[in-house]
Design brief:
The structure holds two protein chains of two kinds. Chain A is of the alpha+beta class. Chain A is built from eleven helices and seven strands. In chain A, 39% of the residues lie in helices and 16% in strands. In chain A, the strands form two sheets. Chain A has a five-stranded mixed sheet, with helices on both faces. Chain A starts with 5 loop residues before the first helix and ends in a 13-residue tail after the last helix. Chain B has ten helices and no strands.
Amino acid sequence: MNTFSDETLMAFADDELDPTTRAAVAAAMRDDPEIERRVARHRALRAKIRLAYSAELQQPSPERLLAAARGQGLKPKATVTDLAAVRAAGAAGAPNAARTAMQHPGWRPAAALAASVLIGVGVGYFARQRTDPVVARDGGWVAGGELAGALSAQLGAERPAGTAVQVTFSFVSKSGDYCRVFTLTGAAGGLACREGNAWQIRVLAEDEPRSPGEAAVPGGYRTAASGLSTVVLDAVQSQIAGEPLDHDAEIQARQRGWRPLGRAAPRN
Amino acid sequence: MNTIGRPETVQDDIITLIPRLRRFARTLTRDPHDADDVVQIALERALTRLDQWHRDARLDSWLFKIVRNAWIDEVRSRGRRDRMFAGEEAGEHVGVDAMADQTDLMSVQSAMARLPEEQRTTVSLVLVEGLSYQEAADVMGIPVGTLTSRLARARDALQALLDPEGQR
């Protein structure tokens, strides 16, 4: 009776054997139920694993990955601030960074990846804030403090006195989420989208003030957006579905708590 | 937008592969957020290196390799590779521990998550993504014999986790 190693039987099940060995295994399977059983076991495991992972292919691709594949990534425009590096610098004694690190004990190293959305925002910016406008969560970044409150409550046309946040306009993204463009006084502008119960920060970038009257973007988001960095506007252009929301649509969205309209429950 | 001077069809092909890249990256990273970050980095790299892709090579294999390298770079930069990845040795005993207290059937995903990274990657490339042994070995930069023995060990461990009653 032929004896075959388990690796050989596995390779037979995976159709990886040369024709001679394959024929020998096939012949042995006919003679020896034990060999047949071992091959069947390998095949069953292969099928089970393949099936278990098949559902993941049904999930829609996030807009940021589609944009990256189209060459519309956000990187080339400005220096990417790696917050993990900032944190490390803090530990080494840089004064601003150190203070930032102190304020964010929860920042975990995994956040370094997600930090690629934070573009050109200096360490000093975070150090100036009384409350954290941006906090790490689950490997991403969400709005916190005054920024979170403003994103949920402020309408685009409003500019309440004494607030550091101005929401400039809102839109529905291609993935169906409500997104809002905002500026933080004297520091940064960004794009946040409502996902779950939080405002996920998609982009946060240092202001690049434009000369008065310069069109912000070919599509024309007018003066409301004219102080925004091009990286923010590029992100808007790649993610927006249709037109920015008008005043009434913003009110309706706010009443619904910025939950997506008419979208199937997220798959996971 | 076509910034790379290549036919847009390649970019379209890459876009259709995103779900598989995410699936592969999730197996690697065991965290969906990290996985998407790794895929984003990989996509950005891939676009800058399209001239390195040979048209007779499988686009998916080439992208899997870039995803894996992006993850390795990321882990290395975090400086916690040793902590995160059990070695091959540890992986060989994983099934024994699980059998001791495991009564319910374990899901394939949670069984996979218990494997060492190199075995997870091997299973993902061959059994999930359907690459040949040679193609998977090329993605991982190892000889095909190493890949085969790794795959056999991974299967043993998965079999023990998923079907503790089954005898060889």
